[in-house]
Amino acid sequence: MERCLRMLGHEVRLFYTDSYQIQCTYLQKKLNELGWKNGEASYIASKKAEFQTLLDGFSPELVFFVNFQRKFFMPQELAAIHRKSKIVFWFVDEVAGHPKVERCLHPYRVFVYEKDDVEYLRKNYAMAAVYCPVGFNDAYEGAAESSDKQIDIAFIGSPFRRRLKLLEALAAEAETHGWRMQIYGPFYETRYFWKKYVFGRKYPLLVNYIQNRSVLPEEAAQIYTHSKICLNIHGNENRSLNPRTFEIMATGSFELLDAHDDYADLVHPGVDLDVFHDEQELVRQVTRYLENHALREKIAKQGKQAVRGKHSMLKGLEKILAAAE
């Protein structure tokens, strides 16, 4: 996103508001869970001070929030920022069901990744949010297509429960059929040696296919272009299409997506990607497309044509920034 904003001619400063639970030690996390909140309070106070220093030194025309950490910014603090700078929110996760966040948004421009959030915010908070899906960045569009498909099935993502269940079932089939499957993502914490053991006890087949690390967009694009099937499984709560949907298609790779009730006319199952509904259909679809190279390549080509020039992150940011003027 930073790169896209710079491509649009803007000077950008990034500020990360990682939660205390991500940054703290194992002992601090346990103390926090037991009610000792001093560590979290100190962390939040230090982040607020850092952010204020950044604002004072940079004096931005626009403060662009991607999602929103309610603990870091109270309504009065947002109001103080708004007196000097415009504020825009782009939620790339679900908004509905987080009332402390929702009530902070009234005076500001709000864009949402979940299409249903538009109606939810209008009905419950009389707020005019705008639907804006998160597209692919240029690292995916610039990836060179490859005929050397070394990977049969690739998946990149975090370990949501629904994903783990599907991937474990697919790992069983991969072991039986000898499929070359590679799974990338932060599936267990590396800071604690026992985490891999615990994960392996719960998912004994899947653990054999995991490369337990995050990947940058440039590497992700290369993984996709060298894979016959790029699997995309949404998180537990996601109803709208995630950015991965467009990233895979932009590389000219074949995508197999978990089925949705509404594709918002952004993608078309069976034409520019294909879908599955459950574990059994996932296995059938993987088997089908591994055996049918011509159909797989035809759909991948159509998918690339469907998203190029339409569903990029650059296009989304242009839309948001134009509305903020």
Determine the strand fraction and express it as a percent band. 5-15%
The arrangement of helices and strands along the chain is HHHHEHEHEHEHEHEHEHEHEEHHH
Let me know the largest β-sheet. 6 strands, parallel
Radius of gyration: 21 Å
Verbal overview:
This protein has helices at residues 2-7, 20-23, 26-33, 38-58, 75-82, 99-102, 116-125, 138-141, 161-177, 194-202, 217-225, 243-250, 279-291, 293-307, 313-324, and strands at 62-66, 86-91, 109-112, 130-131, 151-156, 181-184, 210-211, 227-232, 255-258, 274-276. The mean pLDDT is 91. The strands form two sheets. The chain has a six-stranded parallel sheet with strand order 7-6-5-8-9-10, sandwiched between helices. It has a four-stranded parallel sheet with strand order 1-2-3-4, with helices on both faces. It is built from 15 helices and ten strands. Strand 6 (181-184), helix 10 and strand 7 (210-211) form a beta-alpha-beta unit. The chain is globular. With 325 residues, it is of the alpha/beta class.
